[in-house]
Amino acid sequence: MSNRGKLTGSLVLLLLAAQGAYCAGELTREEVMMRAELTELWEPVPPEVHPGDAGSAPSDAIVLFDGSNLDAWKSNTGGPASWRVADGAVTVVPGAGDILTRESFGDVQLHIEWATPAEVSGESQGRGNSGVFLMDRYEVQILDSYNNPTYANGQAASVYKQHIPLVNASRGPGLWQSYDIVFMKPVFGSNGRVVRPATITVFHNGVLVQNNVEARGPTRFIGTPQYEAHGDAPIRLQDHSNPMRFRNIWIRRL
Ligand code: MG
C-alpha cells in the first residue's frame, strides 16, 4: 500500500474510532473536538535519511558523479562516456557528444553543480551552454546567463523554450553553481495521450526559479512540443561545444 493509502487508512480508522466512542456515549462531541491526539498520526514513520554534509549526497541518493569517474554514464553512441575527469570535476569535451546515465529514471530529485568557462567567449546561446535533460527529453537549460542577454525562455534555468525562470540567480563565469530539481514524470493513458504533463521545480543556487511548472512536451529547438508516450529514461547532459564543468551529481528516486 502506498504511504498516502496508509495515511488515509490510519486517519479513517482514527476518526471511526473517535466516532465510535462518540456514538457509544463514551465521549461527547466537544471532547472529540478537543482531543489533540485524535488528529495525530504516528504511522507511517518516515524512513531516516542522513542529509549530506556540504558537497556530499544524502544517504539514500544514487551518486551519479563524485569527482572520480564516469562509471554511471555512457556516451550518446552507447560506449563509455569520454568527457574529461580531473580535479574532482568532469569537463565537456566539445564534439564528444552528450552523455547519459546508464540507469533510467522517472520521478526524481536531482542535484547537479556546474560551472561555465572562466574565460568568456561567445555570446547569447553560444556562451557557456549545456543542459540537463530529464528523461532524456525535458531540458533545464544550463547557460552563462551572467550579463549575457539571450531569449528569456532560453537563459539559464529556463525549461528550454517553454518556461522563463522566475528570476536570474546566475553566478559569474567560472564560479560553481547548482541546480536542485524536482521532476515528476508525465503520465500517459492507455491510448498514449498524456493525462498528466511532467512537472518541474528548480532551485538555482538555492533560489526558486521554476515553481512546479508543466512541461508542454519534450524540448524542441524548432517548433512546438508535443507529447509522445514513453517510459523511464536516462538523465542526459548536453555537449553544446562549450567546455562546461560539472561536479557533485546525485539523484533520489521519488
Ligand atoms: Mg542547452
Q: Helix/strand-derived class? A: mainly beta
Spans of at least 5 consecutive residues whose pLDDT stays below 50 are: none
The count of strands amounts to 15
Q: CATH-wise, what's the superfamily of the largest domain?
A: Exo-inulinase, domain 1
Percentage of residues in helical conformation: 10-25%
**Cα Rg:** 23 Å
Task: Kindly identify the CATH topology of the largest domain.
Answer: Jelly Rolls
Strand composition percent: 25-35%
The CATH architecture of the largest domain would be: Sandwich
Morphology call: elongated
**Terminal Cα span:** 16 Å
Please write the CATH class name of the largest domain. Mainly Beta
Q: Helix-strand pattern, N to C?
A: HHEEEEEEEEEEEEEEE
Task: Give a short overview.
By secondary structure, the chain is mostly beta strands. Helices cover 11% and strands 28% of the residues.
Description:
The chain has 254 residues and is mostly beta strands. The chain has 2 domains: 3-39; 62-253, Jelly Rolls (Sandwich). The protein has helices spanning 3-23, 29-34, and strands at residues 62-65, 73-75, 84-86, 89-91, 99-101, 108-115, 130-134, 138-142, 177-184, 187-188, 194-196, 199-204, 207-214, 236-237, 245-253. The longest helix is centred in the first third of the chain and has 21 residues, at 3-23. The mean pLDDT is 92. The structure holds magnesium ion. Residues 129-131, 141-142, 238, 240 line the site of magnesium ion.
